[in-house]
Design a protein that fits this description.
Layout: E1 3-12, E2 16-19, H1 20-23, H2 31-38, E3 42-45, H3 53-67, E4 77-81, H4 92-99, E5 106-110, H5 116-129, E6 136-142, H6 155-158, E7 164-173, E8 179-187, E9 195-197, H7 204-209, H8 227-231, E10 237-239, H9 241-262, E11 272-275, H10 280-290, H11 301-304, H12 311-321, E12 330-337, E13 341-348
Parallel strand pairs: 4-5, 4-6, 11-12
Antiparallel strand pairs: 1-7, 2-3, 6-7, 8-13, 9-10, 12-13
Helix pairs in contact: 3-4, 9-10
Bound molecules: oxa(dethia)-CoA.
Amino acid sequence: MPRSKIAGIGYYVPDRVMTNADMMAYMDTSDEWIRERTGIEERRYADRTNETTTTMGVEAAKIAIERAGITAQDIDFIIFATLCPDYYFPGCGVLVQRAMKMREIGALDIRNQCSGFVYALSVADQFIKTGMYKNILVIGSEKHSFGLDFSTRGRNVSVIFGDGAGAVVLQPTEKEGQGILSTHLHSDGESAEILAMYNPGTHANYWVEKGVADFNNAPIGDMFMSHAMIDQAQNFPNMDGPAVFKKAVVKMPEVVMEALQANGLTPSDIDMLIPHQANLRIAQFVQQKLGLSDDQVHNNIQKYGNTTAASVPIALCEAWEAGKIREGDLVCLTVFGSGFTWGSALMRW
Ligand code: UT7
């Protein structure tokens, strides 16, 4: 059975830089708080009208496709991971198919938030291994800046997130030892509401049980999205940050170890670990727990904030472009996020 390899990789971040000082114009926060708690110095925001989650994904995809030495016409399947799609439906995958004038190929959207890229990569890997497709475009892209609470109420979330996109082309490889060795996916839905955007949605019963809403007496048109929901900021991401932090620092190293053990390897074999860029302190915990040196880990949250499904492909591409990843290197990706979901992917570059 052939393995799949990353044949081309690219990323795109918008030009507009938002510093921590810029965030202070909207909410009660400080450069010191953001740097100390998250490591973030600045993030990028997409152009309000001319850039979307899809258009940024397309920019990253163009680079990945060119580096793979193919054209958009050669792509057999699209997998698009995002939590902020251009539309509630349809997904961004079909918009990429249209924008890049691709053949009438399949397009799948993945809804696994910060874990989205590793989930998408794992799905693509299966299609390649079975021989079903030869060129799969995997994109992670987010335009968070359009859907954040910029009042002080939302500051624990809004200062963290940034916009951007990363993409890879996955192809089969027959080269001995090369390619994705294994992927490992997990979830625990017990804490689904700890990091979530509650509305619009169809979960009326959850709020009725909590006594927060009396949907039985609400006008039918108010159940999906109402003024009351907007007043309660339910249309913005909501997060119990410390609870997410505590789980992430356990699950990320655990799932890296799972990948290593599945392949008879140890942390010292890792040439480059790309952790999801949620918080520099989380990445440092993961590094410390695995006993990795600074040159075995690449972080870039300082410049881009948390770009959710885009964070891993952006950091992976940046590390590769900087010459930190070379052919034959053992590369590990690890993610954790809303759901909770988490995972890892281990590959020989
Ligand atoms: O990517 C997917 C998953 N997301 C994550 O992995 C995020 C994980 N969690 C975190 O990164 C951290 O929990 C945060 C960065 C979100 C928050 O840091 P923290 O050290 O856990 O702070 P906290 O939430 O416990 O809040 C401490 C204080 C609170 O004030 P009081 O109650 O102590 O007076 C917050 O209201 O900091 C306050 N605070 C802020 N202050 C200034 C929260 N956000 C801000 C802010 N600026 N932006």
